[in-house]
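Quick one: structure tokens for this chain, please?
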Amino acid sequence: IYDDMLVKSGTTFSFHTHLLDVQCTGGHVDYAICMGKSGLFAVKAAAYVDATGDGDVAGVAGADDIDGEQE
């Protein structure tokens, strides 16, 4: 169902893809460098959705680590 919703919305997505690196300017991700079954590729977008479950895009981009724990 979710895949169909993405397709109908016109969203571009990729399964079985690994994030290798990001290129940033001024705290903004310009490109995500990825590896998939088809090989190495770069993604440029106005917004990125990190569905890794671990915050990999933010971590590779150098964002502060926020784990939800209060000191």
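Residues 32 and 43 are 5 Å apart (CA to CA).
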